[in-house]
Write a structure and sequence with these properties.
Layout lengths: L2 E4 L2 E4 L4 E7 L8 E7 L6 E7 L4 E3 L7 E6 L4 E6 L8 E9 L2 E4 L3 E6 L1
Parallel strand pairs: 2-11
Antiparallel strand pairs: 1-3, 3-8, 4-5, 4-9, 5-6, 7-8, 9-10, 9-11
Length: 114
């Protein structure tokens, strides 16, 4: 599975960005697809995932602000990020799991200025 992320950029606090992740194959067959992020000096942490069966997981620090959605026909997953905060500044990585194997896309930088 190849994952291609796009949509990062710079925005002021309170602004919005949408990240997109295009998968090389059918995302319908993936156990999990979603987003992690890594800020400088910090570990990579889960942001939001879409799981087999249609359930979603969100990190507490993005609940109510970020929304993950998927477009099965286009094999894409998007992350709508609203009310961005400076602490959301990080490299965001698209992530997928299929049959126990993990796949990572190249990161896309999100920078939020105060």
């Amino acid at each position: 599975v190849q994952l291609q992320a796009s949509g990062g950029g710079s925005v002021q606090a309170g602004g919005s960005l949408t990240l997109s992740c295009a998968a090389s194959g059918s995302i319908f067959r993936l156990n999990t697809i979603g987003w992690y992020r890594q800020a400088p000096g910090n570990e990579r942490v889960l942001v939001a995932t879409y799981n087999l069966g249609g359930t979603t997981n969100y990190a507490d620090f993005v609940k109510g602000r970020f929304t993950i959605s998927r477009d099965n026909p286009k094999n894409m997953v998007s992350l709508q990020m609203n009310n961005l905060k400076p602490e959301d500044t990080a490299v965001y990585y698209c992530y997928a799991v299929r049959y126990g194997m993990e796949f990572w896309g190249k990161g896309t930088q999100v920078t939020v200025s105060s």
